[in-house]
């Protein structure tokens, strides 16, 4: 949070009348927040390693980021701030989702270490099934809203006039760069994940991260009460 506030102060104090400054502000703020290990990123990485509908996953992630950031810039961040009940239930649902996602990941790590390798020999999910799961992971994760609607959106809303949308364009470019790099990394790691043990470690890491995030979100609810 401190890093975001520093970037925010740096760009709002500078000349925001410049197109390049607004674009670079959006790019920098967005990239500083999305480069992390989270549910969405790990799902995209998993699909890239398996080589399954990767382009569709990247397109969904970039478009969803663009839409959510745009909504934040247009005023959704203010709406969430003025509606504590909505924010409470959104956060509660996110904590439950994160815990459940972590439990499924640990189940794979402990009892189904070859689940990542079992692409052939059973019905493979089509693109709509893969995108449906990704949509659930994206839209039920409170961190997505915190990053896009609240933090990035509120910073972008301070840009002057039409420069708000230049800011959104810069943030969208950062999202595109990150997810393309993630897809390329997944392709390069296909050899590593030919070993079931690598999937076990990835699922264990995923589960641990999701449990930690669920605890963090739930502790925030307890503090608010």
From TrEMBL:
Keywords: Cell membrane, Membrane, Transmembrane, Transmembrane helix. The keyword Transport does not apply. It is found in: Cell membrane. InterPro entries: LeuE-type. This is L-lysine exporter family protein LysE/ArgO. One of its GO terms (cellular component) is plasma membrane. GO terms for molecular function: amino acid transmembrane transporter activity. It holds the Pfam family LysE. Its main location: membrane. It comes from Paracidovorax wautersii. It is a multi-pass membrane protein. The keyword Transmembrane helix applies. The chain crosses the membrane at residues 20-45, 57-80, 86-106, 127-145, 165-186, 198-218. The lineage of its organism: Bacteria, Pseudomonadati, Pseudomonadota, Betaproteobacteria, Burkholderiales.
């Amino acid at each position: 949070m401190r890093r975001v506030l520093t970037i925010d102060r740096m760009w709002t104090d500078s000349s925001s009348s410049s197109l390049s400054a607004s674009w670079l502000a959006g790019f920098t703020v967005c990239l500083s927040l999305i480069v992390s290990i989270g549910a969405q990123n790990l799902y995209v990485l998993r699909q890239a390693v398996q080589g399954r509908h990767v382009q569709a996953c990247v397109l969904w992630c970039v478009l969803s980021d663009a839409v959510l950031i745009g909504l934040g810039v247009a005023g959704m961040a203010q709406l969430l701030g003025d509606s504590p009940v909505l924010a409470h239930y959104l956060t509660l649902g996110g904590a439950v989702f994160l815990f459940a996602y972590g439990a499924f990941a640990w189940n794979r790590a402990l009892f189904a270490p070859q689940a990542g390798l079992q692409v052939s020999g059973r019905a493979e999910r089509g693109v709509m099934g893969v995108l449906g799961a990704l949509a659930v992971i994206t839209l039920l994760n409170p961190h997505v809203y915190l990053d896009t609607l609240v933090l990035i959106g509120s910073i972008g809303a301070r840009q002057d006039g039409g420069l708000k949308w230049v800011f959104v364009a810069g943030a969208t470019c950062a999202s595109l760069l990150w997810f393309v790099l993630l897809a390329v990394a997944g392709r390069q790691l296909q050899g590593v994940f030919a070993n079931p043990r690598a999937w076990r470690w990835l699922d264990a890491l995923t589960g641990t991260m999701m449990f930690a995030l669920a605890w963090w979100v739930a502790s925030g609810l307890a503090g608010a009460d």
